[in-house]
Specification:
alpha/beta; 5-stranded parallel sheet; about 30% helix; 11 strands; Thiosulfate_sulfurtransferase; 4-stranded parallel sheet; 10 helices
């Protein structure tokens, strides 16, 4: 049976999503920064996801990816199946939703979309929302890291620095990038990394939707990032860079990767190179 949900684009507008809400193969996941956002009103049928489930949550790098058993448990709980088309959104412009979609890409589940602007755009369009939680219908999903190349670890990243056609997009604030603020042993940025803060890719006048693609591509090219390059994005915990990874995908950057260890790992070691302006 064909599914309308599987025809949704990577970046879906609220009115388009509203047309397919009854599709049985659709799984809408609300992964808000503030849990009360879900209770205040969510897209009808959306399941709530605590963003902390997307992180391992302990150890020296608590923002690392959970293991396959934890991911299997999470996606089974949410009711994911091989045929499901996931639409993710949040209440802050795409950070945690992006991290969720990046995790799906990591496990090889490529049927997914992002609700452009998240709950803000949905509400602004006057579309119906619900305040009662939607109970997931559990599945038996076995998650495996089928697409490891969407991630890069610290050692590999360090080896690749300076390679032609390879670039690092730091999604943190300019102050963090310059080493003026942060809660790490060492402050600054990865050598050669370029900085475009994640919120700079959001259109503040259009409920935090992704900004005009042509403008964004021009700005990224001015920083030295072009769609043909292999681009690794990171922030402090691969939360803000969940969104910049997604933006790169939307703009046609085919080799977008993310460094889940991010500055939490890099900035707390003594054997990583650090640059300051």
């Amino acid at each position: 049976m064909s599914s309308e949900a599987n025809l949704l684009p990577l970046i879906v507008e609220p009115d388009r999503l509203a047309e397919v809400l009854d599709d049985p193969q659709l799984l809408i996941i609300d992964v808000p920064l503030k849990p009360e956002s879900y209770a205040e009103g969510h897209v009808p049928g959306a399941r709530f996801l605590d963003y902390r489930r997307l992180l391992v949550g302990s150890g020296e790098v608590p923002n690392e990816v959970p293991d396959e058993a934890a991911l299997s448990a999470l996606f089974s709980e949410l009711g994911l199946t091989r045929d499901t088309h996931v639409v993710a959104y949040d209440d802050e412009g795409g950070g945690w939703a992006g991290r969720l979609l990046w995790t799906l890409e990591l496990i090889g589940h490529r049927r997914y979309s992002y609700l452009n602007g998240g709950i803000h755009s949905w509400r602004a369009e006057g579309l119906p929302s619900e305040t009662t939680p939607t109970a997931p219908v559990p599945s038996e999903y076995e998650a495996a890291i089928l697409n490891p190349d969407v991630a890069i670890d610290r050692e590999s990243l360090q080896e690749r620095l300076g390679d032609k056609g390879f670039a690092v997009w730091d999604a943190r604030s300019p102050e963090e990038y310059r080493g003026e603020k942060g809660q790490n042993r060492r402050l600054g940025h990865i050598p050669g990394a370029v900085n475009l803060e994640w919120t700079e890719a959001m259109d503040k006048a259009r409920q935090l939707r992704i900004r005009d693609y042509a403008e964004l591509i021009t700005e990224l090219e001015a920083l030295g990032l072009t769609p043909d390059m292999e681009v690794v994005t990171h922030c402090q915990s691969h939360h803000r860079s969940g969104f910049t990874w997604l933006v790169g995908k939307a703009l046609g950057f085919e080799k977008m990767r993310a460094y889940p260890g991010s500055w939490k790992e890099w900035g707390n070691r003594d054997d990583t190179p650090v640059e300051k302006p």
